[in-house]
Write the structure tokens for this entry.
Amino acid sequence: MQTPAPVEYERAISLEGAISSLQGRGAGARIIAGGHSLIPMMKLRLATPELLIDINDLDELSYIREHRGPGEGDGEQPHEVRIGALTRHVELLQSELLAQRMPVFRDAEELIADPPVRNRGTIGGSLCQADAAEDLSAVCTALNATVAIRGPEGQRLIPIGEFYLGPFMTAVGEAEILTEVRIPLRPGAGSAHEKVERRAGDFAIAAVSVAVWIDGGTIVDAGIGLSALGPTTLSATHAQEVLRGNPPSEELFAEAGRMASGDCSPLADSRGPVDYKRHLAAVLTTRALRRATARALKQET
């Protein structure tokens, strides 16, 4: 079957209107922006929504900007970067702000799909699809992002670690929309993304995003997101703990890689057996740590 089931279509002119339409239809309504994940699922009838709510006209959800926290002066560091849910992959790829502050985004975006997909696909759609092999989920996990979700009762903020409830399942409710991704900015940061794929632009066989924060030659904090290495995007918690409080070294990176291999829970499939994927988790974590640390140390100097 390659034809979607009959579906109604509505083009939203406001965020409040989109939420109202979702509330009226419940589980029968779906938000569509880029549509590169939803439309193929509809063609295969793996998804059969009754109503599609197109949010492409909601320009207020498309931005990448620095946000200064309360009480911060003009000369101080921004508190966080905020990214609107309708921001396209190509905008993430081309953003000089992200390239400077969080180069892991550009690393990942250079490996995602192809130009037609990057021109239409959005960060909000990528996160809400909750595909375990999706790259930006690992990026946001490594960076300790928080997502903003808007619904009839207002806005709520959810740490990325609590956002994924299972394969293709998120904390976004039936009448809610993910509106923004918030990523804290801290000094001494470096980040990187590494990926192995069967062909250019494909979903990952395994991918790892890493962020480190270095102060005085010591890794004071670290985040590691694992993609395609479990039923959902995973955080390599034990590997992160190994890194904290230690000076960077090849021996430390190798140990963190071994811990990441143990932190993941891959499944054997057409992309490879479990042992191969665990091996990739270790190798990619080590590589990403090496690059992220070099970038952090460059920021320090």
